[in-house]
Amino acid sequence: MSELSLQRGLAVLRDQIDAPVAAFFSSCVNCGLCAQACPFYVETGDPRYTPILKVKPLRLVWEQEYTLWGKIKSMIGLAEKVTDEMLDEWEPLLYDSCTMCARCSLICPVGNDIQSMVRKTREGMVASGHAPEGLIGAASRAIRTGSPMGLKWKTLSAQIRHVEASSGLTVPVDQEGADYMVLLSSMEIINFPEYLEAIAKIFVHTGVTWTLSTDCYEATNAGIQIGNKDIAAELVQRIVDAAVKLKVKNVITPECGHAYTAMRWEGPNLIGKSYPFKVFHIIEVLDDLRAKGRLRTDGKEADRLSMHDPCNLARKSGVIDEQRHLMDMVAEDFVELKEHGKYQWCCGAGGGVSSNERAEALKMAAFKRKKAQIEEVEPERMVTMCATCRTQLEEGLEEFNMDIPVVGLTEMIADHLVEKKSST
Amino acid sequence: MSDPMEFLLWTKGPMFDWALAIFAIGLAARIAEIFVLGRKPNYAEPRGGEMGPGFRTVITRTVADRGTFARAPFDVVLGTVWHVGFIIALLLFIPHIELLDNLLGLSWPGLPNPVVDAVSAVTIVALIAALVHRIMHPVKKHLSTAEDYLIWLVTFLPLVTGYLAYHRLINPYPLALSLHILSVEIFLIVLPFTKLIHIFTAFIARWYNGATFGRKGIES
User: Fold this and answer.
1) Which of A103, A294, A306, A408 is deepest in the core (most CB within 10 A)?
2) What is the ipTM of this complex?
């Protein structure tokens, strides 16, 4: 990489530093407890994967530019500089061995929100030309085609026809003034088409109006995963424009963890203003309909079920009780993983790791933590509500020859809806 | 300054004033360095508050969650023991309280000397164990820099000199007391410019952590 791109990266890192970052770095005493919170360290035992170490480039910039003592050290040549070689070495630490699951942020004794600093450091990595190929591809496809996987509307359109034929229901498209605009994720469209049919059934059952938008149906945000606020803002703006055009009051993000945090928490700050609509994860909407008595189910699954909380939904967004209320409706024998809710362990695939082919081996290594958790409670099936987590759980369980199918919670709810004629 | 009495007067007099001044100015500068950076406005609709959850985390983050305790019991127990021990020795030893009373006009009840003595002994042992742990544990070893060992030493010296002075193990006594006071002055001078600043900034960091999570409706 050139000196120019390094300088650009350093300028972006400088721009990321705020009072919380300064408080966090001032407070770190290298106790190393964050390593105990990280599935990548816990499962590999490699100290390079200690979370606080992953943000060292940001720390050096903070120390040298924003502390008097650091400036003095710099002047007398005692400061360690951020170089291209260093950023090369740090690229796999920041992208391959971190899902931004934020477990370290919850464990750190001095209160460092390390995950937020990984997110910030990735901005500098992109600007200096140190991002993984897989994520660069996903981000540029997202900008070009609207989908990180390069999916076109005609693929979704075929899917819609298929759902309509099999369910006899209509999937509304571009319906102005609907209660909810529904977003999907490419991974879901390809791997879990049953989700679309499930929400079609649920919305008819609950009497909710909804719509897809041909302008924008992709909820995921590759800009946030790679760490580029301009790409991220553009992807958020497309959703905002589509929702405004259809005059909807609510936007639903799909069973995808990061799509929810991207829209719900980062999006307004990326575009610099609040939305003229509300954002919900599908699980929040279902629980709300349950609470209002509009979502009614019949019968329960008899086998032993456990649940994986997606990090983005539980620890990073506070959606923890909602999925449990829904599980209670349809599960006879539900057993919690020992550490769950805000303390759950990441599946190992989020934060762009699953789009980064180079990280494949580490992704499976990190999954071993989840595997150990599952083995402790021996469920017959796992339930989750994020397509990336679900894919990772399926692949991981298969890798370790564990015969435990994984189901999406929305589909499970759809399977138990009270028949229309008896629901009135 | 070959005379121990003269040495004591110097450590209690001009040196003490210098140390306090450097500590106070350094601390104020470091805290200002943090707050002048500010935070960008947050446009996302909050699910919970910031203020309350922030202060809650300032308190609750003192205790490790059950899972972390199970995975790193030695870290948690040792860290807690020596921090608590250090605070007891610093703030509940009657001569220290008298000094602070003279300095700040604030006073509170102390613990009997034998209790503080026992606590100090435990704290010294715990700090030595923490140093060994830092050298041995793969993560700590990998993370540690010269500064980490420096602040260990700077923390250790006031305890060990205090212990030696209390037990009259250094003679004459004015020399023992001078060495103890000097070690505290070094601690005060080094504090603002090293990770010892966490004594103050950790509460700010915890507040930001609790506020960030709290805004999203999570108790952190």
Assistant:
1) A103
2) 0.96
Q: Nearest chain B Cα to A272, which residue?
A: B43
Min Cα separation B136/chain A (Å) = 12
The hierarchical CATH code for the domain A145-290 is 1.20.1050
Asked if B210 has any chain A CB less than 8 Å from its own CB, the reply is: yes
Q: What is the pLDDT of residue A420?
A: 62
Asked whether residue B47 is assigned to any structural domain, the reply reads no
The enclosing domain of B136 has a CATH number of 1.20.950.20
What would the pLDDT profile of B11-23 be if each residue is shown by its tens digit? 999 999 999 999 9
Residue B37 pLDDT level (bands cut at 50, 70, 90):
very high
pLDDT at A422: 44
Regions of chain A where pLDDT drops below 70: 1, 420-424
Q: Whole-model pTM? A: 0.96
Residue at B45 is within a domain:
no
Assign domain A3-131 to a CATH class.
mainly alpha
In a domain, B52, yes or no: no
CATH fold of the domain at A294-414: Rossmann fold (3.40.50)
Contact A112 B30 (CB under 8 A): no
Contacts of B208 in chain A (CB under 8 A): 19-20, 23-24, 111, 113
- Are B43 and A116 an interchain contact pair (Cβ–Cβ within 8 Å)? no
Of the candidates A121, A132, A117, the one whose C-alpha atom is nearest the C-alpha of residue A363 is A132
Does A23 sit within 8 Å of B205, measured CB to CB?
yes
Sign of CA dihedral A325, A329, A331, A334: positive
For residue B18, give its domain range. Answer: 4-37+69-215
- pLDDT above 90 for B2: no
